[in-house]
Amino acid sequence: MNTSHHRWRQPRPISTARPGAPGPVDHAKIGRSSVRRRARGMTHGEAVTALEDAEQDAHMNRRHEDLADDGGRGEAELAEWRRIGQLLATTGGPYDPDADAVVQEELAADRHRKEAEQQRLQEQQQLAGRADELARLAGAGRLNRTVESRPGDEAARDLLGDRGDYRTAAVDGWLARALADRSGHYADPAARAAAVGSLPVPVRARAALLAALARTGAPAADGELEFVGSLAQADPVATNALAAWLDTALDPTAPASAGKDGTA
After folding, report:
1. Could you tell me if 243 and 199 lie in one domain?
2. Kindly report the CA angle at 97 between 95 and 99, in degrees rounded to 5?
3. How many C-beta neighbours within 10 Å does residue 97 have?
4. Do 89 and 143 share a structural domain?
5. Distance (Å, whole) CA 77 – CA 63
6. Which distant-in-sequence residues (6+ apart) come within 8 Å of 49 by Cβ?
7. Helices marked H in the chain
8. Residue 7 within a domain
9. Exposure pattern of 185-195 as b/e (b: 16+ CB <10 Å)?
10. Cβ of 82: how many Cβ atoms within 10 Å?
């Protein structure tokens, strides 16, 4: 016979988080889990007795200020005893948390949250790794056309900017070149369209002017078009206007807005 419902009068200790454990302690959840462990194997009558004991304990604890504030655990335990009692009034018992639909739904939700958090952390680690990689390449002078852009590089660029990394400027130039060339993941029109909302305006303006200059057919050695970045940074609106003018001059049949924002 299950004896976990026997009366006891020792105050419940309030659980605290383990050192380094993320997030606040959910005292109510701890209380519900405690009740379910103690209720395993109980009949309806035993659950009713356990509820009566818990109600009496709660009444006594309210007299003591240091025990009254338990983070909501006491109320959660009482509510869980009542729920289990109502469940057993229908099923008769014995109580089995593994067959309790409410418990199983909560466990499934916990698993989904944990999986989502693990995925989020993994994505953050991958993003930080890519940002570090781009920064190293930029610092070594090797961030050029031989390095293909990837989906998510815009976010890696933003991370470097948030860090205040001086190599962000070199990454901006590399991304602008990739957007202008439609290379790497910018070969996909959807990626080029998304760049409008994910890249800073000066980077897009730089890409637009680089693309327009490339249409002139005039060869340019590495470093000869660095002025484009300065123009775009100083006045991206004028840079976009110049890119559109060049497009129209090179192809009078083209719309005046061709090349705007480097996404054409």
Report:
1. yes
2. 85
3. 16
4. no
5. 18
6. 5
7. 27-39, 44-61, 65-68, 73-91, 101-139, 153-163, 168-181, 189-198, 201-214, 226-234, 236-250
8. no
9. bbeeeebbebb
10. 16
Residues 6+ away with beta carbon under 8 Å from 88: 42, 43, 44, 47, 95
3-state secondary structure of 264: coil
Distance CA 194, CA 232 (A): 20
Give domain status of residue 179, yes or no: yes
Predicted confidence (pLDDT) per residue in 27-47, tens digit: 999 999 999 999 999 999 999
Dmax (CA) of the chain = 93
Structural domain total, the chain: 2
CA angle 151, 153, 157 (to 5 degrees): 160
Q: What's the predicted TM-score (pTM) here?
A: 0.70
What confidence tens digit (pLDDT) does each residue in 95-126 have? 999 999 999 999 999 999 999 999 999 999 99
Q: By residue range, what is the domain housing residue 73?
A: 27-99
